[in-house]
Amino acid sequence: MSAVEQYARAHIVTDTADSVDDEHRAVPVALRYDPETDPRLVQITLPGPHEWVFNRDLLEQGLRAPVASGDVRVWPCGRVQAVLEFHSSHGVAVVQFESKALIRFLRRTYTAAGTPVAR
Predict the structure, then answer these.
(1) Total-model pTM
(2) For residue 108, which of 47, 34, 55 has the smallest C-alpha distance?
(3) Three-class SS string for the chain?
(4) Are 94 and 13 in contact (CB under 8 A)?
(5) How does pLDDT run across 7-48, given as a tens digit for each residue?
(6) Per-residue b/e over 85-101, b at no fewer than 16 CB within 10 Å?
């Protein structure tokens, strides 16, 4: 089993953007999965010191219907986008992704873990 790291572009649509420009343009986001550390978890890192680790199933389910667990919420936004909302003591970050980038990442995580792809 090997770790998966994928970079995607996303739009930060809340006040946690590092600058006003970040609110209006795509920013790089790192998606990581390491089955050796914990095969149930994924990690998302936004620009700056913004990093969240949460259950991979939450990400998958949130592409089909709104779901929440703890400080993370995920929901589909139309046919081609998904929104992830992260709550912390510093505020709320709402990040919009193209769903296909998240689906590609999830498929790679299942391949890395040696489990069948659910989609």
Answers:
(1) 0.84
(2) 34
(3) CCCEEEEEEEEECCCCCCCCHHHCCEEEEEEEECCCCCCCEEEEEECCCEEEEEEHHHHHHHCCCCEEECCEEEEEECCCEEEEEEEECCEEEEEEEEHHHHHHHHHHHHHHHCCCCCC
(4) yes
(5) 999 988 865 455 555 556 788 999 999 999 999 999 999 887
(6) bbeeeeeebbbebbbeb
